[in-house]
Input
Amino acid sequence: MNKIAPQTTPADFWPELISEETRALLDPSSPADPIARQYVPSADELISSPGERADPIGDAAHSPMRGLVHRHPDRVLLMPTEVCAVHCRFCFRRHALGQPRSLNEPELDSALGYIRAHPPIREVILTGGDPLVLSAERLARLTAALDAIPHLATIRVHSRVPIAAPSRVTTALVAALATQKAMYLAVHCNHARELTREALAATRMFLDAGIPVLAQTVLLRGVNDTADALAELMEALVAARIKPYYLHHCDMVAGAAHFRTTVGEGRALMAELRRRVSGLALPTYVLDIPGGHGKVPVEPGHGPDGEGWVKDTSGGAHRYPPE
Ligand code: SF4
Output
């Protein structure tokens, strides 16, 4: 392990940004508090470990233009903004975020033109950054443009806003996601305490508008790496009509070793979760293979090998953790 750079602070790399609602939830006197740990900079972020990298899931290798990642023939990621409502200390895309910058109109037009010119694309995933920090007007223009592309079937929005900054969710913002095509919202939620009354009210606004809500969780040491914490979170999500979708193994982002469990620990937690909760409350435990080789399940019996080597969806073997 090496110090990334002497005489620097974690905030030099990734500025602290905590929404008012999230700040009210965390215990500032305890660095071990599972909410504080996700948002308050720590000196551990200055340590780089073998295999870590700035772009751990290899977005750049599959990016035909600014704001677009095309890794699979039938899907693209469209990142209309590099702004988030909060800065998660373990963010896998933080190398590309943090600038107060959204795609300008010509850039957005180029990205939409690319999608129009590629008929195999069936699904657009709006991510970022956080698409729900855009104004309702801008978001509505974007979803209308996507809705008008005949070969698209599905639009998915990835956001931390309903959980971490629920006051941003307004009737107009929800209405901006009204489309003829199938629209899904995937919220990022890592701990049951994040499901506050306000967060639940915000997600209910999308559900009541007919938009199914899924949850993505990052497995994080000191935040949710116990069967109790995961079971409580997954059951609370299901009770709120939010389907647990993915449990992400923490990516090889530089300076996040203190958050990362081993794949073996993650598998053991999933096995325990399977014993304790209904199938409805079980997410799929997944790993993004470093270098842009895609996401694969890592559960026993139907996934790659876990510690040592992993196989991508085409059967290619990759050393994991990478050297
Ligand atoms: S909300 Fe998502 S994109 Fe933004 S900092 Fe957190 S993990 Fe990264």
User: Anything to note?
Assistant: The CA atoms of residues 243 and 280 lie 7 Å apart.
